[in-house]
Amino acid sequence: MATLDSAIKSVIGDKTADALGKSFGIATVEDLLRHYPRRYIARGELSDISDLHEGDEATVLAEISSCRLRVNGARKILEVVIEDGSKEKISLTFFNQPWRERDLRVGRQGMFAGKIGIFNGRKQLAHPDYELIPDGNDVDEALQNFAGVFIPVYPATAKIPTWKISKCIEIALDSLDPIEDYLPEEIITRFGYPTLHQAFERIHRPQTLEEAEGARARLTFDEALLLQLVLASRKVELAMQDATPRAIREGGLVSAFEAQLPFSYTEGQREVNAEIESDLKRAHPMHRLLQGEVGSGKTVVALRAMLAVVDSGGQAALLAPTEVLAQQHFSTFSKLLGDLAEAGTLGASDVGTQLALLTGSMSAAAKRETLARIASGDAGIVIGTHALLSHGVEFNDLGLVVVDEQHRFGVEQRDALRTKAKLPPHVLVMTATPIPRTVAMTIFGDLDVSTLRQLPGGRSPITTHVIPTLEKPHYLTRAWQRIREEVEKGHQAYIVAPRITAPSQEQSKSAITQRDREMAALLGQSFDEEVLESGEMSSVEELAPELATGALTGLKIAPLHGKQSSELKEETMKAFASHQLDVLVSTTVIEVGVDVPNASTMVIMDADRFGVSQLHQLRGRVGRGSVPGLCLLVTSADEESPAMERLKAVAQTLDGFELSRIDLDQRREGDVLGRAQSGSKSQLRLLRVLRDEDLIEQARELAINIISTDASLSKYPRLAAEVAELRAEEQSAFMDKG
Question: What is the largest distance, in Å, between two alpha-carbon atoms of the chain?
Fold first, then answer.
């Protein structure tokens, strides 16, 4: 007999166990039982050949109607035709495997699986996986042996087809000891769920579809509840920690800063300022997420919070994901603070502090000087990249950690900076990616959430158009003319390309950008590896000189990308900000934090290569002043493709919250808690944060109620063990990464 913790090798053969481990990270019986079916096929109702389309992954129950071996030079090609009683047939092709002719005899029936292709106008499966029904068995009896009344179809690979997975699960279920349920009996009864043992049995061997759905509902609820219990318990623990209260001092830095601000706060900014101010006064650390539309004024709110901490004698650190963004924040803070950032110099304000910038590419001498100012406390506000996390960075009194663009960092990096404080510091997490409410509950459930929706006065509307180069190539010529017209009016433009250098042919077939994967991580998702075959993508190093000597000749153009030295990047950004340049040809390094009010136009090349939220972020770089913004999305995507749907959605709305839902709806959720290994409990398999919104609300309410009355889960030891294991896995993943 076996338990959920038993090694998979103890119930199935070593070879199959190794293949399951390699393909799906399956190591234990529980891992195997949590490899859930994608769908079910009723006996006798497998895929209808006439309903299948090119590219479909299909499992077909069919009969062999012909089998022919032909020789073409040195190649032996076995051609098999199968039919399932519908109007169409499928050909199976096997190269240099003549021995299969003995098995694949006319009249035999079986299950055939693979990806549908088209060859000579006929549907084809090349080298399909198959399982033949033994001679003498009728179909119903044979399929009964496969999987009972309903046949589960599993995520599979060429080496481990769905029926092999099904057989492994059958063996595991048959050898499983009774499972002690971790969900309390009163919760199971209250919601009418099956027990955990019943849920595993019914999701893999359902007698009815209703039975399978009931099992799926129970297992989905488990994922939601365990995740919410982890977040709720973490939030309680954080609230119990001691922190130094950081109250704003009357007549201090905050007052001086606000007196010289050239604009008034929006109503939303005033509300969030009050929330943060209230949090900072407490003797427990603030843990707040500040999210808002592109250009909604998050930076000013964060700076005010940092000044409040400096006012009380502490230091504040801002962690940025890139050097370009760190330098941009340093420049913006310097501009907003003026002489308030020059403490200790002649002519400085009576109340003031110093700013420090710390990045990995600084010279050793500059780094030593900066580290000394941070350690002494002279630098009240410190801005940096991952370099802030490194050994040797010591603060005098770190009171506030601001993390910009949280999706670029894991919780462990946030925590790494917190360890540099004497007492747990206050934490403010910022993101310019609007997050649907359910996602915020699911990913940032340990944080309080503040939202800025209102844009500051003076911001101009942005118009977005899609340029389909396949159908209307002359539109691209017009785009370059439009840039010229904008420059003649005294404005500036961005041109964004997805690559730095020209890719090799192999690289050109890569799919979604790295930024998309980062967005997926934020939203608790992973991409299906969609391969785009539409030729090479635009690159900065090719496009910049091509435009400078062609369509945009005579304009001042410069490239900007992540592989340039930090000095060159800084010089280029300063030159663009001071209008010494007309056009910046850049990768996505400009997507957040870059603020040049005079920039009116953006052209995004190969826009289909970017995610919805990323396009929204990029577009937010224009229309930041009094000049109306224009964003042109250039694409060679097919008019009917999902990529074109994404681009049209971006063009139709400026509502980042609506776009984030569209973005999430097109993806599938993956690991939310962190970067845990595949197969671990912290990986979400069934929960979908949009579809299961009501379920997540229900689980969150239940988790908060449980933790508020029993923070250690002492009444529910089995549930406590599951939560502890989840948290241990999370911590282990962070330790491994570090």
Answer: 99
- For 162, the token pair is 């769905």
Name the helix (H) or strand (E) containing 329: helix 323-337
243 vs 277, 304, 308, 426, CA distance in Å? Answer: 14, 19, 15, 7
Any bridge partners for residue 94, and if so which?
78
Most confident of 27-36, 347-356, 504-513: 27-36
**Cα gap 576→597, rounded to integer Å:** 11
Neighbour count for residue 89 (Cβ, 10 Å): 16
For residue 34, CA distances in Å to 146, 201, 684 come to 19, 11, 10
Distance CA 570, CA 577 (A): 10
Question: Tokens standing for 712?
Answer: 């250690």
Edge-first strand order for the sheet with 557-560 is 462-468, 629-635, 599-604, 492-496, 583-586, 557-560
Q: Which residues of 305-335 are buried (b: 16+ CB within 10 A; e: fewer)?
A: bbbbbbbbebbbbbbbbbbbbbbbbbbbbee
Cα 603 to chain centroid distance, Å, stands at: 25
Place of tokens 């190969």: 606
Counting Cα atoms < 13 Å in the Cβ hemisphere of 240 gives 8
Q: Per-residue pLDDT tens for 85-94?
A: 777 889 998 8
Structure tokens at 144: 């009964």
pTM over 0.70: no
Q: Name the average pLDDT for the chain.
A: 82
From CA 336, how far away is CA 339, in angstroms rounded?
9
The amino acid sitting at 150 is F
Within 539-623, residue ranges assigned H as helices are 540-548, 566-577, 612-619
Q: Identify the DSSP state of 216.
A: H
Rounded Cα distance between 493 and 619, Å, is: 11
Nearest Cα residue to 276 out of 433, 435, 442, 429:
429
